[in-house]
Write the structure tokens for this entry.
Amino acid sequence: MENIGLILNEAGLSYSDIASITIYLKDMKKFGELNEVYKNYFDKAYPARTCFAVADLPLNANVEMTVTAAFKAIEL
């Protein structure tokens, strides 16, 4: 989540700009633990979320996330 925050920051965005997150989790027994960490990064307005159980991930990771964030329109 911290890496996601750094990438968002580089684009001038924040966690509140995230529209959806796809999570790939090797062990669904860890979903509660993941959820505890996840909720610390958002206010009550959570983005849409999909979570899949997977057999394996690159580099023996336990979790991988894909994030879609939206730029805010600005009036000129």
Q: What stands out?
A: Helices lie at 2-10, 31-38. The longest helix spans residues 2-10. The chain has one domain: 2-69.
